[in-house]
Amino acid sequence: MNDDPHGGWPGQDPDPARRPQRPAGPPRRPAGGPPPGYGQRQGPGPQGPGQAPWQRQGAPQQGQPPPPPPRRPQRPPVAPQHEPDLITHHEHNGTTDRGYDDRYEEPYEDEQYAPETDENGKPILTPAQRKKRRWRRIRRVLLALFCLFVVIPAIAFVITYFSVDVPSPQAIAATQGQAVTYYYADNTEMGKDVPKGGNRQILTPEQIPDIVKKAVIATEDASFETNSGFDIGGILRAVYNQVTAGKGGGSTISQQYIKVASGDDESSLTRKWTELAKSFKMNQTYEKKDIISAYLNIIYFGRGAYGIESAAQAFFAKPAGELNASEAALLAGLIQQPGRSENPKVANERWTVALNRMVENKFLSAADRANLQFPTPVPQTDKQQAGVVNPFIRDKVKEELAANGITDDVYYTRGYKVYTTIDPKAQAAAEQAIADGMKGQTDENLLNALVAVDPKTGGVKAYYGGPTLVKGPNGQDQKGRDWANTPQNPGSSMKPFDLTAYMQLGKGGINSTFDGSNNRQFGKQTIRNAGPGSSCSAQCTVSEAMQRSANTVFYDMVVNVTKPGPVAQAAKDAGVKPAPDGTSELFGDNNIALGGGKTAVTPEDMAAAYATFAGEGQRRDKHFIVKVTNSQDEAAYSAPEEAKSAFADDSDKSKQIAGNVTEALKGVIPFSKLKCPNGHECAGKTGTQQHTYRSGEPNSAKDSNSQTWMVGYTPSISAAVWVGGDGDKALKGKNGKAIFGSTIAGPIWQKFLSLYLNGKSGERFDKVKIIGGDDNNTIPSTQTPPDENDDPGETGTPSTGPSTAPSSSRNEEDPPSSSKNPPSSSENNGEEGGNGPGRGGGGRGDNG
Predict the structure, then answer these.
(1) Using CA atoms, how far apart are residues 572 and 589, in angstroms rounded to an integer?
(2) What is the crossing angle of helices 210-220 and 325-334, to 10°?
């Protein structure tokens, strides 16, 4: 056998494909012969005759041992140019190399046997070789991926598992239920918000009813009994929902426990990784009954209640051990939305979801489910005592915090300090102005609210929403309703947005003219002004119409020029926030022109929107918080301070529009027999919504109004005052007379500004170029206020909505006698309001 890997079998040529090119050198020997010089005499001396060619000089004679052959020279190492040796080659079978010198290998006799190369000199592979190389690379990639996604994570998970601990419910409870301290804008303490569940009891598994555990398991984690702390299917569903913008997470009860225990809700891989490891360890350490009990002892349910025992007391005034299936279902459902526990619609929906899932998981029979009724929680009492923050301000702060990451479930867990925008002087002025303005009023249906906003920051300076504690139907104490956050028909206080939209569209300005005469026909709808004081000529300027609150002018402007949509947009541009971002409603029909129908705005939104006019067209988002710190005085949240051009992309144009609105509103103040604070310019607008007369009511109800407003501002403060009723009620002022925007709300507004701005430097509005009309840059002089016997000049919208106008024919009725013989009481002097269209019929009136 030929041991030379480059050689072939005896008598055959070597494989040309394996043989390398022989370098240039001495001529090769004849085939089959020994190397040149082999057997020749070494050294001097002739070669004797008769000697074989391979016999050397000095060969031993017969009987003498032959001398050792001469040592062959060591050949230099040559890099292998061939495939790996077969098992028959040298080391593999115990033999050694025969010692062929590569220098004597024959070169390729024909270049056709040389391997082909590409233009870069690399060998060109056969398809089989390429396929082999491709699969080799795939195997290496798969191995790397396996190590990256399986081996390394497994090692990391084991390390994490042994390095983390699962906190006990007792340890977590110690961090929950911490009071939140509130501060005024001057950093003096406002009060503390102390959680009701601060002194709660940690229950054992035996003390928590099985129906409560089953309700929570069915609602929160149906695989709880079988998973190992995390649910792969749930995680995949959560990922899918995030990608497709769907709803639903993938956390198990164990994971939620860990999240609450750590107090970390950051959306990071590190947090989720640690959470998974802790959840898994918890399930390896504790029994399922201990895990569900631990979870129920720390989770937040709403109403400031952490843990099932506190929740049972807060919602049903009973121990957790006495909860029934219906009550358990409601509490289980509220875990996902504790901040909306007081919303009846949300509470009912969550209760239904919990019961349905209990049936699906066979924890409750369908028959038993059908017999259950919604469990009405006990009324929530919220007494405002010394040292306790105003609950209405607290609720607005919590709403703002939740929108910025500090949700209701962690609100009481960090010892937060909330520095608010509330100015103690402004808050005291608001409460005193309300008290003074309501003195002598005997109508128990009268309610009120006042909100003041800083135009330069958007911060709420004063917030009064009415009494925080009221009597329930059975005489029990219950939390009052926040009327500052309750939407009402704005009446003629909506007209500045009509004007804003008109100027935004480039249709004209405050010197443009409209027909301001009374009883104008718009299709089948008759629109009236309130009386002599609210009508003007057929060439009435917009500025004069604003002072008189001429309904026919602004209805014409919206219906025939701007259309309702731009009016709603102008209100949004100014700062009114309709649902879902807020609670106001801007209904896009013709009624919006006069602030009636389904259009309803909250006092806080009105104060914020008028603040944009005061702020020269720069909108700053209304807010209650300056900053929030935790118990270690570390920053947790700071309110952004940015302004946006409200009415145009160009700030100068936005300022011009806002300034023109201000010019039109400045004349309303003296026309309504109100006064600006000493040394300060001011502007504003009254508004009134007419009561709908119903059969069986006294005749005096035909002249009554249900909502009244005064909204106005100086360069440094914007304030909205609302005085009205809960729904469409016939309201009466002193001596049983009808109330208007200037009779109660107006004086309260004036009193507040006088108290708040007392001692502050006087201020005036910047002058701007007038828009529209004859473009002469002049403002009409303030009109003379109506005589005391005039009906104040403002009426409301005819309603096309089903909630207020049963039929359009009723809106076309002639005005009743009351509109032709206005009341002579001084209470009505200067009021921009009066008789709405279809008075006594279906028409709704804005009687400003």
Answers:
(1) 16
(2) 40
Dihedral Cα 147, 149, 151, 152, nearest 10 deg? 100
DSSP labels, 649-691: SSHHHHHHHHHHHHHHHHTHHHHTT--PPTTB--EEEEEEEE-
Distance CA 279, CA 750 (A): 61
Which candidate in 220, 309, 327, 831 is catalytic? 220
Q: Taken in order 264, 270, 276, 280, is the CA torsion positive or negative?
A: negative
* Catalytic site includes residue 492: yes
Residue-wise pLDDT for 226-239, tens only, equals: 887 666 655 555 55
Q: Which value, in Å, is the radius of gyration of the alpha carbons in the chain?
A: 46
Structural contact between residues 299 and 200, judged by C-beta atoms closer than 8 angstroms? no
Report yes or no: 530 and 796 within 8 Å, Cβ to Cβ.
no
- How wide is the angle at C-alpha 654 spanned by C-alphas 545 and 540, nearest 5°? 15
**Around 581, how many Cα atoms within 13 Å sit in the side-chain half-sphere?**
9
Residue that the structure tokens 């309603």 belong to? 799
Q: Compute CA distances 182 → 186, 193, 627, 756, whole Å.
A: 11, 8, 11, 22
Burial of 94 (0-12, 13-18, 19+ CB in 10 A): exposed
Task: For residues 710 and 727, give the distance between their C-alpha atoms in angstroms, rounded to a whole number.
Answer: 19
Q: How far apart are CA 609 and CA 453, in angstroms?
A: 9
Measuring CA to CA, how many Å separate 797 from each of 545, 559, 726? 16, 12, 20
What residue ranges in 472-607 does DSSP mark as E strands? 477-479, 513-514, 520-522, 525-527, 540-541
Mean pLDDT, residues 433-448: 94
Please pick, among 279, 492, 535, 704, the residue that the annotation labels catalytic: 492
Coil vs helix vs strand at 720:
strand
| Per-residue pLDDT tens digits for 176-229 | 778 899 999 999 999 988 876 545 678 999 999 999 999 999 999 888 888 876
**Torsion angle in degrees (nearest 10) through CA of 531, 537, 543, 547:** -20
Count CB-CB contacts under 10 A for residue 105: 19
The position carrying tokens 């067209």 is: 617
Beta-carbon contacts of residue 371 (< 8 Å; ≥ 6 apart): none
Tokens matching residue 69 = 């052959």
Phi-psi category of residue 497: left, alpha or beta, with phi > 0 → left and psi -120 to 50 → alpha:
alpha
The pLDDT value recorded for residue 234 is 54
Instruction: Tell me, yes or no, if 634 is annotated catalytic.
Output: no
Give the integer Cα–Cα distance in Å for 754 and 623. Answer: 24
- What angle do helix axes 269-285 and 288-298 make, rounded to 10 degrees? 130
397 within 8 A of 435, measured Cβ to Cβ: no
DSSP state of 380: P
Tens digit of each residue's pLDDT (9 = 90 or more) over 500-525: 999 999 989 999 999 999 999 999 99
Here the tokens at position 550 are 């001429």
Q: Which two tokens stand for residue 95?
A: 């033999």
Phi/psi for 568 (5° steps) reads -60, -40
